[in-house]
Amino acid sequence: MAGRGADEHPHGADRLCEAGDRVYSRAVRRGRLARRDAAPVPCLLELALLHPDPDDMDWLVPTSPQEVMTRLLRGMYDEVRASQRRVGSAVEAFEWYAGLGRQVPASPSVAEGPAIRVLDGLARIQAAMDEATHACRAEVLTVQPGGIRREAELSEGLHRAMALRGRGVRMRDLYTHVARHGHGLLSYLELMGDAVEARTLDEVVERLILFDRTVAFIPANPERTMALELRHPALVEYLGTVFERLWRLAIPLTAPLPETGIEGISHREQSIAALLAEGHQDAVIAERLGISVRTCRAHIARLSETLGAASRTQLGVRIAQAGLDGFRGPAVTRPGRGSRTSR
């Protein structure tokens, strides 16, 4: 029966079939459901959305929607973290190979230039970016970490963005949730109109700019005074895949952040609580979420007050008791419905 159900209902709990949506909703409203009424939708039992009533095996009771949401969020969070770890490993590998490349003479068989080029200095980086912008014809994907973007940063790349918009190039940008509070970003997006679509996550990977899935730019040092220009098709395709996975999990800038489900605790404080539970120091948490250390500590103080913790050790215990230590996931759409976009 399980095999037949999987063939007829090839989906997960995040996107139920129409029959599954209808039967599960009825079970939630009524509190239980006759087993015979669930026979046409074996997917609900296979996905553990329905389970036998221990008091009467002829009846099934629904798993609470809150528990289902928790499962989905955990899975999404694990996927984001895995993607971030893979990108971090890839960046380290890029730097290692770039170092080897400087020691070996260029092969005469490479007609289109090196697959990895180190750009040393802001002037060389800007020149390479201008060149890629001029050649771009279809799409630009960017990841912008660091929280609220300063107006100077936005102004620096405005001429390239306007040139791309003029040619009908589609742009998609990923930011941290903190960037939502920056007036400069909102003004920039208003100026660009439909040419730019933006989404946000709790955390994003290091800065990435990808033109037409052919050339990508990533930082080569923490100060961002050096960059790697990547033209190897496999590397560029890999980075594009990472972007698309993060994009799917991100929340459109026009959509509100999900509620935590715990009174008095904001979405940002939930993210901080999860990082605290992982053992990170205040400065590391602040950097990963794109906020100042002072702001981070203010949120930690509010967390302690809300959870009734008198010390950091007690706060860790209370975070675990409240279920805030397991994930920091994005919003979940209602089963069977599409996610909102900013377009």
UniProtKB/TrEMBL annotation:
Name of a matching Pfam family: GerE
SMART domains, per the entry: HTH_LUXR
Superkingdom of origin: Bacteria
HTH luxR-type domain boundaries: 258-323
Gene3D superfamilies per the UniProt record, alphabetical: Winged helix-like DNA-binding domain superfamily/Winged helix DNA-binding domain (1.10.10.10)
Membrane-spanning ranges: none
Annotated protein name in UniProt: LuxR C-terminal-related transcriptional regulator
Organism expressing this protein natively: Streptomyces marokkonensis
